[in-house]
Design goal:
The chain is built from eight helices and 14 strands. With 358 residues, it is of the alpha/beta class. It is globular.
Length: 358
């Protein structure tokens, strides 16, 4: 069952992070709100330490000094949510001074350790007189004046969106429509998910992320979700940000305007020199995007990392480091999976030879 949590300014208790218990505060007096975004914080797939990536831990002081109002993770926060959480609490959560939230990924598991429901974070509201019904998730006497933040668990239902999720999206549509009717101004909607379900059935992106976590039989994104996004985009800017990027990705950032007022983004680290976080500075009339390198690299603006740039980087990896050959050989021959593969191959050869001798 999806749930919706609200902060009604000056009239309800603030919502708190389930990871570091810091409360989500409203926009400042100028309507500015800074969102820090990243994902895959367990780093490389070979990381078995139970701690976050070194690039994250090495930048904790800087992250705290960025002045972010909220820190949103695009999933794969843990390698093993249940076992790793105590270490994360000591080394990461307890030292963060920014409220932190996670859209669960395939490594995060389920339950309270990672959060297993869709979550609509607080929006900041004022009472107005509204003769129209803005949808099931918002009273018609409310006006939302801050960014809409929605975190999805796309590991459930194989990435498909059920009636509860569609209802939340319809509620956001109603809210932005109401705000536009009253003010003629556009709002901003951020949707955070681990899986880029927007890419699976779209030939413009599916080849770029073909090695990423995806459903076996497809999702209802194109049929049921995207039409609602199109309606929301009539009166708001929509940014859908995911975090399933393979280890061979050329950048920690993918940023593509898909349609008017709809932008699809990916952001995830791998404990690599390319590791970076994204910053969204939300103002009443605009959103300014920037990137923060976790390794000191000079970065292009996020908008530069579009589909054309990604395709231009194919085959431009760093190449094979031959000095790693002894280490990689040792890792291979000491792997249990390697010897299971050898045994299966020998068994198959033996069976084929027996059949041929008959």
């Amino acid at each position: 069952m999806c749930f919706v949590l609200w902060l009604i300014a000056f009239s309800a208790s603030a919502q708190r992070s389930p990871f570091n218990n810091l409360e989500v505060l409203p926009t400042d007096s100028n309507g500015h709100y800074r969102i820090l975004i990243g994902g895959h914080f367990h780093g490389a797939s070979s990381n078995r330490s139970g701690y976050p990536a070194a690039t994250i831990l090495a930048n904790l002081d800087t992250i705290n000094q960025l002045g972010a109002d909220i820190f949103l993770s695009t999933g794969d926060l843990f390698m093993d949510a249940e076992k790793d959480r105590p270490r994360y609490e000591r080394a990461f959560f307890s030292k963060l001074t920014v409220p932190f939230f996670n859209a669960p990924g395939n490594h995060d598991g389920a339950g309270s350790a990672a959060g297993d429901e869709d979550l609509r974070l607080p929006s900041w509201q004022q009472r107005i007189s509204a003769p129209v019904d803005p949808g099931p998730s918002l009273s018609s006497s409310m006006e939302v004046v801050g960014p809409h933040l929605l975190l999805l668990n796309t590991e459930r239902r194989e990435g498909n969106s059920d009636e509860d999720r569609l209802g939340i999206l319809e509620g956001i549509r109603g809210a932005v429509d109401l705000y536009y009717r009253q003010t003629k101004a556009r709002q901003v909607v951020f949707i955070i998910s681990h899986r880029p379900i927007w890419a699976e059935d779209d030939p413009r992106y599916s080849d770029l992320f073909k090695d990423n976590t995806r459903s076996l039989t497809g999702t209802n994104f194109k049929k049921d979700v995207y039409p609602i996004l199109q309606e929301i985009a009539k009166h708001a800017q929509v940014f859908w940000i995911s975090g399933s990027l393979g280890g061979g990705a050329p950048s920690s950032i993918f940023f593509q305007q898909h349609a008017p007022n709809i932008t699809f983004i990916q952001c995830a680290i791998r404990d690599e020199p390319r590791d970076a976080l994204m910053i969204a500075d939300v103002y009443p009339d605009s959103v300014h995007w920037s990137a923060f390198s976790l390794t000191g690299q000079k970065l292009l603006p996020p908008q530069s990392f579009d589909a054309a740039w990604w395709r231009s980087q194919r085959g431009k990896g760093e190449g094979f480091n031959w000095r790693l050959l002894p280490y990689l050989t040792k890792m291979t021959v000491t792997s249990r999976a390697f010897w299971w593969g050898v045994a299966a191959t020998l068994l198959l050869v033996w069976l084929v030879r027996r059949l041929l001798r008959r």
